[in-house]
Amino acid sequence: MVRLSDRIFGLAVILVALAYIASALQIQVSFLSDPVGSKTFPIIVASVAIICAGIMILKPDEEPAWPEGWTIASILISIVLLIGYAYALKPLGFLIPTAIVAGALSYQISPRPRGAVLAGLGLSIGLFVMFKFVLDLGLVAFPKAWMV
Amino acid sequence: MDILANLSLGFGIALSPYTLMLAVIGCFIGTIVGALPGLGPSNGVAIMIPLTFSMGLDAVAALVLLTSIYYGAMYGGRISSILLNIPGDEPALMTTLDGYPMAKAGRAGDALVISGFASFVGAFLATIGLMLLAPILSRVAYQFGPAEYFALYLLAFSTLGGISSNNQAKAALASCIGLMIAMIGLDPNSGLPRMTGGNLHLYDGVDFLVAIVGLFAVSEIFFFIESHGKSSAVGIILGKVTVPWAEIWSTRWTMLRSSLVGFFAGVLPGAGASLGSFMTYMMEKAIAGEKGGFGTGVAKGVAAPEAGNNAAAGGALVPMLTLGVPGSGTTAVLLAVLVTLNITPGPTLFIDRPDVVWGLIASLLIANFVLLAMNVPMVKVFVKILSVPPALLLPGVTMVSFVGIYSLTGSYFDLLLVVAFGVLGYVLRKLDIPTVPVILGILLGKQMEKQLRDAMVLSDGDWTYLFSSGISIGLIVASVIGFVAPMFLRRVLKRPQAVTD
After folding, report:
1. CA distances from B430 to A66, A110, B226, B368, B424 (A)
2. Closest-CA residue in chain A for B171?
3. Does the pTM exceed 0.90?
4. Is pLDDT above 50 for B186?
5. ipTM of this complex
6. Which of B158, B175, B226, B447 to mutate to test the interface with A (most CBs of A within 10 A)?
């Protein structure tokens, strides 16, 4: 029982918090400052975070059940898909990226190709109709280049 | 009578057809959101916020819609607890203890009706409590200066982390993560950028809506990918729903006691509905004793936690409206809405914007009756919704969240942040680190720092000023107790485990 998860996370928090403190020390201070200034509060908070992370390293909890093998890959794929979606939404319009990403996510949850394709198409069109015509949001359906 | 005059003002606003329609829609969506496992009140409200803003609703309308969803979700949480043995949201966990055995014994309909009535009693009494207590508390809040507010924020963080988590270090760490994220952006006093790493997108800071949607909604999809949506199959068949009047009447004292206790559990900053349902269940179990048969599927065991958590939901609105300090995760989300709508919660809200406060209270009273109607005679409709496959539901929720944020900010960078918060939320929840304090930190961080700095300006840098008034000393002592006490109480009060088949 090494209980690595809590320790690794604690260590990561300590590194981030140290970087945070270092960055706080670099904050430009205006010549007319209040007694506390812009550095103190961030430094206090980061220090408390370091203490907590230290406790996590010294007294870690039971190891959680992490996913294994293909499930990890599934989650990573979904993260990449969502990042791609973030970039694609503006240039490519709503319908195409949504159909692809929704379908792919659906496939990751329940690997049935037909269901996933239907979920993707249905969600893409259904949500578009709802957003555009019921909620009246300004969404673009297709890539701008097609709309000439 | 002040209250009657105010109420008539409130009902004048709430009874307009448009507001009424929003309340009904909110109740409907809320019950669905609450019923679906994996979607709780905080996710439900979080997903709806960006949409509400893009629709251009005014303050009262937006609040009515979102609080109806909140109340609805508290009602709906019991449906999946009873039918699937999976709590639809965290506070509904206690309802599984007696609700699921009742359903297995073929009394699913009775369990749903009894818990629906209990929810109604709890929420109704809590709304009345809110009406009576909030104006009084708002008068006390006038005594609050920067030092007192700083102490109050401290109390919110320590009790929220202290009570709702299994590990104090992790809860405190979660608050710190939130506060650290809140510092990103322009320093409110000097106007100079901090912690942005030179990234221009971060100069405005991290929008808490982005964090909320990421942590609560997007992280959920990773959990469903992990479980492959296996967890939701309705194994219980719901027959004809009849109202067991005699049994409801037999739980009347249970409902009243639980509503009272739940309401006060909700008023405590940071404690929230989970504590309400936990305390009321344990209390009723103790009162009923061995003969009560708690845990085997008795009416009181269903009524107590439902009355308790719905009362707590109403109680949690009290500190949120009067002090600007949320009592639970969802009220933190609602606070975010208020702030974004340019409404400053606090004592002045009751003087400056009586239309908002009393319109909200009147809508809540109406929403309660709507919810009772939806949750007792129409409960079968919502049971049908439980059979929507997660493979359709979760991608849908994710897309709605993305579009909501995108239509609000129009920035791909915020969408990337949503993904990042989704991943963070997954890791935090895996490690049993609560995510609500992170939200609270992001939400209150700037204010907390500002109050501290204002206090120091007033006292010219003398730190003892933080302990200068009775109120602030009391709050700081309470926050220390609230943080430390659960470490010892946890051994005594063990959370009962959910029933397993």
Report:
1. 8, 21, 11, 35, 10
2. A52
3. no
4. yes
5. 0.91
6. B226
